[in-house]
Every structure is written in C-alpha cells, then in structure tokens.
Request: fold
Amino acid sequence: MMTLKLFHSPASPFVRKVLVCAHEKGVADQVELLTSKAWPVKRDPEIVRENPSGQVPSAILEDGSPLFDSRVICAYVDTLSASVPLVPSDRRTCFASMTLEALADTMLGAALLCRYEAVLRPAEFYWDLWHDSQMEKVDSGLDDLEARWMEQLEGPVSIGSIAAACALGYLDFRFAEKDWRSGREALAAWYDVFKLRPSMQATWPE
Reply:
C-alpha cells in the first residue's frame, strides 16, 4: 500500500481539502501527516526543502518526489482508488468541476489574506481597504456559488463541491461573525447537508 507523506497544519483549509478527498476516496489510511511549522511570515525549512514556497499542503511521494499545491495533491489522491472519480472523466463535467475548485480556492486565498491582515499585521499597519477588498472577493464568490453553481454542487461529490465546502467551512471557522448565509439560502441548505458527510466531520479544523 502506497503512503503519501503530507506536511500539514490542522487549521489549513487547503490541507483539509486534501484530507476530505482522501476520506471520500477511502484512502485516508494512506496519508501520513507530517508535523510542520507552516507560517506565512517565517517559513519552515523542512517544507521549503520540498516546496520552495514553504506552504502547506506539501506532499512527498514514496520515491521522494515532491507534490504541491492542494489541487495537484488532490488530483493525485484521486488516482489512489478506483472508486468514483472526484475529477469526472466527462470533458464538460471535468472542466466545470475544476473551475468550481478554482473559484473556491480563490475565495479561500482571499479569506486567508483577511485573516493574516487581522491577526498577524501590526495594528499600526492594518489596512482596512486591503481587508475589505479581499472580503469582496469572498462575497462575489459566494454570490456566484448561489447563482451559477448549485446544480454542480448538488450533483455527485467532486473536487469542486469538496473545495466549495471547505471554503464555506473556513468561513464558519475563522469568520463566525460573518453572515454569509443570508440571501444565499440554497447554498446554505446545501452546505448544511454536505458538512455532515463523514469526510467533513473527520477533518473539522482545530
């Protein structure tokens, strides 16, 4: 049985996306979590040795080859089991799912920047406009999920729906005061069901 070594941070939504995929594919036992000191300011040299960005998730294959970022690792995890693919084989559905994943990842990236601005940046350098501009990306993404992507989300589980669920979960985790559900009732109803999946319950961030 192959083992994928994964540098991780318990609170990283991108790491969570990889782990949800592993659970959905039934290969969570093939992922070995490596402790790391991932930090946006001071990088962990152990991660940098494998991934010059120093970011998580970063993975190491059995032959020592590095694998990053989350999209690449999730695609690899999808190949570890013959169960229903998370990246659909049908061309149209495949690219729709990948585009949905890209949308969710963009939302997550913006949310992380908001988190860093609020928590890490010295108060005297805090930039309201920067924070609000990043949150606008999150809000427009939420609107697009509600208006354009519900059919895809409500279909078979895919890398797109997993990424979207991890983005919404991160908002609940780090931005509990943000009422993203109002005016997006279909999206909220979908997420409230999806988050009960065993893969989501097993990977709730710490």
Remarks:
- The chain is about 55% helix and 5% strand.
- Residues 4-78 form a domain with the Glutaredoxin fold (CATH 3.40.30.10).
- The chain has two domains: 4-78, 91-198.
